[in-house]
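re: the backbone from monday

yeah here it is again, tokenized this time
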């Protein structure tokens, strides 16, 4: 974080302005008695006194580098009494807390004040020149949004005109969300470096198809892995240890046995025919003569 010594500006001028206002209010109260104007002046004096006390508390906290407390006191004091001195010190506390954009905007308003004291103007311009190079840029893109969707940056709704373009952003981590009817459709975090730039795209999450769900299921994945492993294991075994090899061997063996049996039967029949007695004779119609040998 950028460090520098804190020096409250024009505190004496602020006190002097408060004293003048108090004197004017007192004189008005004496002249007008208990009129509504006098009551209003008394109320203004009370607010000025509160603003002065809060301003002093803020200065003390800033000198102790308690910037969160200093920011709170200066913010309260500025709400009670509009003062360029308080505004500058609030911007200084904001810059120390990394809220560069808000600090820069406060300083810019002071720079546009034509009545601002020249000395304070120079101090304001110096701080502004220190903050400018530290402010980052952030581009927020949205895809798939419909009418009524809300984009939030650090829980603050963004306008359509702020989307899709690089805009100033405080350095640090930012949270973005796309919401529809109060439900978050997409949430992302993005880191913006000091003086750097970042880009993020928000889009509604698409529900997976049944097949995608099944593919991503642990049970399905385990079954697929087991099947693959079994197939790989089976393929890695020797051929002589597979069931189909021995089935083929058995079929071939049975076929060989049947073939041998058939051939053996035919040979046996031929041998038996050769040993039988031959019948010889003539085939005259009157008689049949048969000679047996």
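seq for it, each position gets an aa:
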């Amino acid at each position: 974080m950028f460090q520098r010594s804190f020096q409250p500006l024009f505190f004496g001028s602020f006190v002097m302005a408060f004293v003048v206002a108090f004197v004017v209010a007192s004189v008005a109260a004496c002249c007008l008695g208990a009129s509504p104007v006098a009551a209003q002046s008394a109320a203004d004096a009370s607010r000025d006194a509160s603003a002065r006390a809060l301003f002093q508390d803020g200065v003390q906290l800033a000198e102790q580098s308690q910037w969160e407390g200093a920011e709170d006191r200066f913010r309260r004091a500025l709400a009670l009494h509009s003062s360029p001195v308080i505004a500058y010190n609030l911007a200084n506390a904001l810059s120390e807390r990394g809220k560069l954009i808000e600090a820069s905007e406060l300083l810019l308003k002071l720079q546009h004040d034509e009545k601002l004291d020249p000395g304070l103007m120079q101090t304001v311009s110096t701080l502004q020149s220190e903050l400018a190079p530290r402010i980052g840029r952030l581009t927020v893109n949205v895809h798939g949004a419909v009418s009524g969707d809300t984009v939030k940056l650090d829980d603050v709704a963004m306008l359509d005109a702020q989307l899709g373009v690089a805009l100033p952003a405080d350095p640090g981590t930012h949270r973005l969300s796309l919401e529809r009817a109060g439900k978050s459709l997409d949430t992302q975090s993005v880191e913006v470096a000091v003086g750097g730039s970042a880009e993020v795209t928000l889009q509604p999450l698409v529900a997976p198809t049944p097949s995608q769900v099944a593919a991503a299921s642990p049970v399905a994945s385990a079954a697929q892995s087991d099947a693959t492993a079994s197939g790989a294991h089976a393929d890695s075994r020797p051929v002589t240890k597979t069931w189909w090899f021995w089935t083929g061997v058995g079929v071939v063996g049975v076929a060989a046995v049947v073939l041998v049996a058939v051939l053996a039967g035919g040979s046996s029949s031929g041998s038996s025919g050769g040993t039988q007695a031959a019948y010889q004779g003539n085939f005259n119609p009157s008689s049949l003569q048969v000679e047996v040998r």
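The domain at 11-133 is CATH 1.25.40.10 (Serine Threonine Protein Phosphatase 5, Tetratricopeptide repeat). The chain has nine helices and nine strands.
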